[in-house]
Write a structure and sequence with these properties.
Helix content is 36%, strand content 15%. It is α/β, with parallel strands linked by helices and 360 residues long. It folds into two domains: 9-98 and 105-238, Type I PLP-dependent aspartate aminotransferase-like (Major domain) (Aspartate Aminotransferase, domain 2, 3-Layer(aba) Sandwich), CATH 3.40.640.10; 240-358, Alpha-Beta Complex (Aspartate Aminotransferase, domain 1), CATH 3.90.1150. Helix 1 (12-25) runs antiparallel to helix 8 (227-236), helix 2 packs parallel to helix 8 and helix 3 packs across helix 4 (82-90). The chain is globular, with a radius of gyration of 21 Å. Bound molecules: pyridoxal-5'-phosphate (PLP). Pyridoxal-5'-phosphate (PLP) binds next to helix 4.
């Protein structure tokens, strides 16, 4: 079977060496030495000052909302994974969906201001497929209206935008290090911020909100990650550059192999060094998409409908506005298999199946 993704696994011996160290120290979690080492290496790799390694890419969204003391309405994108808007709901805020740009599939900054009300506290946008949002436009809107900016950067690890890490934009960026992402720690995530006033607070919020046994400062949560997860990160981080390079080659094979008369894909922002996190293709209709999925399934090839459905259409979303572009794209987009080790012959086969279906 060829799945949409396959987890990168480092050298097993190397991982076991770290595990042996964990056994020797008998120290498994709570800001342990491997976790601290991973945080330092991630800060160096990304060129950021504040980074907190946490349990997953969802709890970090919740902690970000908590840390900025957001309430009321949060402007967000309907074209993301459900974790983005669920985190807003979970923190008792109201997601206000603003439609996406038809070229980048990121939140459309031109539509944001019309959705701002006196209750708006922040903009929470996703760098979809690792393609940068219009961070300049979003920043100027946020500054003008006194709003906070959080980026769900779950897809954006390793992306450079205008010569710095994409994760360094906004008040807080959140990352996911889930096994399906470009860089992973099995389960995991991170909070990244440049706001000096959040240093310390983010650290405490992910660990119950108290300092030692006597100083209780915040209603924190348990978002700490373990030494075992940190060890996986320490094994994987040195491979990230090669992982991104291997993904870029597969990306090129698709670019060359697919017949672009009948399909399209989102346009990457200018000035981006991309991480090749996903290979999305958009068909002319959902009927064609379903036909292509069927044709691939016969050959045991399983892409993913991602993102689908448009989040504003979920039953449990209160009073969600319609977002025609997101609703349309989400019906017609799939992400094709893309992972280290996917052979060129398989990519060519996938391209041929799709091309033959579209133009028999
Ligand atoms: C994967 C993902 C998340 C959730 O991350 P987890 O680590 O699985 O909790 C959130 N947002 C986006 C856009 C994602 O792709």
């Amino acid at each position: 079977m060829i799945n949409v993704t396959k987890t990168f696994l480092p050298d097993q011996e190397q991982y076991l060496k770290y595990v042996q160290g964990i056994w020797e120290r008998g120290y498994l979690t709570n800001n342990g030495p491997l976790l601290q080492e991973l945080e330092q290496q991630l800060k160096d790799y990304l060129g950021v000052n504040q980074l907190y390694f946490c349990t997953n890419g969802t709890i970090v969204l919740q902690i970000a909302i908590k840390a900025l003391e957001l309430g009321g309405e949060i402007i967000t994108t309907p074209f993301s994974y459900c974790a983005t808007s669920n985190a807003i709901l979970w923190e008792n805020c109201q997601p206000v969906f603003v439609d996406i740009d038809p070229k980048s599939f990121n939140i459309n900054p031109e539509l944001i201001e019309a959705s701002i009300t006196p209750k708006t506290s922040a903009i929470l946008a996703t760098h979809v497929y690792g393609n940068p949002c219009d961070v300049e436009a979003i920043e100027s809107i946020a500054t003008k209206h006194g709003l906070r900016v959080i980026y769900d950067a779950a897809h954006a690890f390793g992306v450079i935008y205008k010569n710095k890490s994409l994760l360094s934009y906004g008040d807080i960026s959140t990352c996911s290090f889930h096994a399906t992402k470009v860089f992973h720690t099995i389960e995991g995530g991170a909070l990244i911020s440049n706001l000096p006033e959040l240093d310390g607070k983010l650290h405490l919020l992910r660990a119950f909100g108290h300092q030692g046994d006597e100083v209780y400062l915040y209603a924190g949560i348990n978002g700490k990650n373990s030494e075992f997860h940190a060890a996986m990160g320490l094994c994987n981080l040195p491979h990230v550059k090669d992982i991104i390079k291997a993904r870029s080659e597969i990306f090129d094979w698709y670019d060359q192999g697919l017949n672009w008369d009948f399909i399209s894909r989102p346009t990457l922002a200018e000035g981006v060094e991309y991480n090749y996190a996903y290979y999305p293709v958009v068909f002319e209709s959902e009927t064609i998409l379903k036909g292509v999925l069927e044709a691939l399934k016969v050959e045991d090839i399983i892409p993913r409908r991602y993102f689908y459905p448009s989040l504003n259409t979920l039953e449990f979303m209160p009073d969600a506005a319609s977002c025609p572009v997101s609703e349309d794209i989400s019906l017609r987009v799939i992400c094709l298999p893309l992972y280290v080790g996917l052979p060129q012959a398989d990519v060519i086969r996938i391209c041929n199946i799709i091309n033959d279906y579209l133009s028999p």
